């Protein structure tokens, strides 16, 4: 029996056996995730963001960036000119495209079990010619009720493993999302809440001060 983590394709002459390796997951630092939730709750429209990731791990988001866009309750379209400006700014900071513009995140202002499911427009963007053939691309959706969908696509050639073996492989699947605690999160949250409400409010709430985080922007 072939394990579920493997895929086989068999013809009368050859069997291709591909091991997809360890499970993938998208990691998001807690401060970044708070900003993502703030963007979601800011207004009753979709908001699109880019996840900026660690150089050594394009599946570990450390912050989110919002560029100029047109939004409504069912779509968020990034302005092409400002998108080019963003990519140029990232390049000047020596942040490569794989770490600056490959995690495409957006929000859904809906609630319910299927509220984070990709819409027809989402899938059209996912399969757009500009995105369809990227070697690495992530679609991340967060709904108003906290539902999350994360889909990843990885493309490559077996020649990177065996010289001369040019077979193309594509991995596309939904993966889990994990919020990663960071050492500075409590300090950042306390400072932000203090600036917004006062030190007395933080002292009075004590360990429950985190309930105010929905009102705080980490920008």
What is this entry, summarized?
By secondary structure, the chain is α/β, with parallel strands linked by helices. It has helices spanning 30-42, 80-92, 97-100, 120-126, 129-132, 185-197, 199-205, and strands spanning 6-10, 15-19, 26-29, 48-54, 57-65, 69-71, 76-78, 103-108, 136-143, 148-157, 168-174, 177-180. It has 7 helices and 12 strands.
For the structure shown, list the relevant keywords.
7 helices; alpha/beta; disordered N terminus; 8-stranded mixed beta sheet; disordered C terminus; two-stranded antiparallel ribbon; 219 residues
Secondary structure elements and pairings:
Layout: E1 6-10, E2 15-19, E3 26-29, H1 30-42, E4 48-54, E5 57-65, E6 69-71, E7 76-78, H2 80-92, H3 97-100, E8 103-108, H4 120-126, H5 129-132, E9 136-143, E10 148-157, E11 168-174, E12 177-180, H6 185-197, H7 199-205
Parallel strand pairs: 3-5, 3-12, 8-9
Antiparallel strand pairs: 1-2, 4-5, 4-8, 6-7, 9-10, 10-11
Helix pairs in contact: 6-7
Low-confidence stretches: 1-14, 215-219
The H/E string reads EEEHEEEEHHEHHEEEEHH
- Counting helices, strands and paired strands, the structural category is alpha/beta
Tally the beta strands: 12
| Shape descriptor | globular
Question: What composes the largest sheet?
Answer: 8 strands, mixed
- Portion of residues in helices? 25-40%
Percent strand = 25-35%
Largest sheet, spatial ordering of strands: 11-10-9-8-4-5-3-12
How large is the count of helical segments?
Answer: 7
How many angstroms does the end-to-end distance come to?
51 Å
- What is the averaged pLDDT score? 84
> Rg from C-alpha positions?
20 Å
